[in-house]
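Page 37, continued from 36.
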């Protein structure tokens, strides 16, 4: 069982730790030559040294990781994540809509209710680390929390032995990346269209920020349009990296996508909601490039 460590202090070879941020340390262990460092992927604090004649290595999960696993446990115990044998038990899968590094998205119809959804399938073999899987649970929790307010609507989820499945609102208009790439076939993007798109994205992002969340991965692939041919009715996708700003440790994580991430994020410095606004600026530059050149050769890609 993990000890939830909020306060960790290394002093004169003795490691003090406490699960209460305001109280004095409640436990300790003596280590000769003790040192404290970040663990793999910044998900833990590692304390190393010698305890008597024995080399000792203690790993303390960070608060954000512990909260992530608490979220996963809650989602399973409450029945939000259904345990199934295969996707076909719940959905009839049709054509593929898109593909990313960790998932594929398909048009699907629910066996119960016949509702057409976008079904994201995340094979567990592509999610080998605990942080990868925590991102899935975080996305499910956040989709539930927003309930479609500026982000894609949540339509259910499930888990099998080899995959996670997240069903969401189907957006027929594709993504901003699809629109940008289409400029090579259909000609330059009109300035009015770009203005409509960015305004809609900012309004969605404002709703997310007003509820205390940073998206942390705003990019063309994560902007969807509800209706084909219109860039006004926008939804934000992929909230797997989003976190509430109360989790202070999260504002030091280097996450996001190259070319869209703000300079302070890339540098590993503290950042806040304005990091998302920088990413919208990068998206604007991409769309303006397509408007001016009428072709798909943006350096970011």
């Amino acid at each position: 069982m993990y000890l939830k460590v909020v306060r960790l202090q290394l002093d004169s070879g003795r490691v003090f730790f406490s699960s209460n941020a305001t109280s004095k340390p409640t436990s300790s262990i003596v280590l000769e030559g003790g040192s404290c460092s970040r663990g793999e992927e910044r998900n833990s604090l590692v304390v190393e040294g010698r305890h008597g004649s024995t080399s000792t290595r203690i790993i303390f999960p960070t608060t954000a990781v512990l909260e992530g696993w608490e979220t996963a446990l809650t989602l399973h115990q409450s029945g939000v994540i259904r345990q199934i044998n295969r996707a076909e038990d719940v959905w009839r899968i049709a054509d593929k809509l898109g593909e990313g590094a960790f998932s594929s998205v398909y048009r699907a119809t629910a066996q119960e209710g016949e509702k057409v959804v976008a079904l994201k399938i995340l094979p567990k073999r592509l999610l080998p680390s605990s942080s990868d899987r925590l991102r899935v649970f975080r996305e499910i929790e956040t989709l539930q929390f927003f309930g479609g307010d500026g982000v894609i609507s949540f339509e259910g989820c499930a888990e099998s032995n080899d995959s996670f499945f997240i069903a969401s609102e189907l957006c027929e208009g594709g993504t901003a990346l699809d629109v940008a790439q289409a400029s090579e076939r259909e000609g330059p993007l009109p300035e009015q269209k770009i203005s409509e798109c960015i305004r809609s994205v900012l309004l969605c992002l404002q709703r997310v920020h007003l509820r205390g969340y940073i998206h942390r991965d705003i990019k063309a692939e994560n902007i969807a349009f509800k209706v084909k041919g219109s860039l006004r009715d926008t939804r934000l996708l992929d909230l797997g990296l989003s976190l509430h700003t109360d989790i202070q440790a999260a504002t030091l994580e280097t996450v996001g996508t190259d070319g869209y991430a703000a300079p302070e994020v890339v540098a590993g410095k503290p950042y806040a909601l304005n990091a998302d606004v920088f990413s919208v600026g990068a998206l604007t530059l991409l769309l303006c490039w397509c408007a001016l050149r009428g072709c798909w050769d943006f350096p970011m890609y």
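Confidence is low (pLDDT under 50) at residues 1-31, 38-42. Flag for discussion at group meeting. The chain has three domains: 7-61, 64-168, 176-293.
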